[in-house]
Amino acid sequence: MKPITFISGVLTGLAVGHLAYHYIVEPRQQAHPDKVLQQLKAQFKDSYDIKNSWISYETQSYQHLGLAYDVLRGGFSNSDFTKRYEFIADSKSGLLIDLFPIA
């Protein structure tokens, strides 16, 4: 076997492995719940007085507008708990799916 054939085979294998990881494995990974919570708090800090917040580390199935999602549930409130909200965020991307007040 010529060295150039071997090197080109190794480089081709590395390239295919790299592409497979980024297009198959990485999209299936879940966003870290703490990161999702920090992103949502930053998104709502101007609209809401957020002093307390929480997020569940376990994913749940959720259906919204006819689409099924694996989601993270969490919430936030002001310092005296008079205004409380619960959110539902996509577990893979961290994007907000639903937000509603808690009575």
Q: What are the main properties of this structure?
A:
2 helices; elongated; 34% helix; 2 domains; alpha+beta; 103 residues; five-stranded antiparallel β-sheet; PepSY domain-containing protein
Number of strands: 5
What is the number of helical segments per DSSP (H or I, 4+ residues)? 2
| Overall outline | elongated
> Could you tell me how far the N terminus lies from the C terminus, measured between alpha carbons in angstroms?
73 Å
How does the helix and strand content classify structurally? alpha+beta
Q: How much helicity do the residues have?
A: 25-40%
* Low-confidence blocks of residues: none
How many strands, which pairing sense, and closed or not: the largest β-sheet? 5 strands, antiparallel
Radius of gyration: 21 Å
Order of helices and strands: HHEEEEE
Q: State which percent range the strand residues make up.
A: 25-35%
Average pLDDT over all residues = 83
Count of domain modules: 2
Protein name: PepSY domain-containing protein
Describe this protein's structure:
The protein has about 100 residues and is of the alpha+beta class. The chain folds into two domains: about 1-30; about 30-100. The chain is built from two helices and five strands; from the N terminus they run H-H-E-E-E-E-E. It has helices at about 5-25, 35-45; strands at about 50-55, 60-65, 65-75, 85-90, 95-100. Strands 1, 2, 3, 4 and 5 form a five-stranded antiparallel β-sheet that branches. Strand 2 and strand 3 form a beta hairpin. The model has no long low-confidence stretch (mean pLDDT about 85). This is PepSY domain-containing protein.
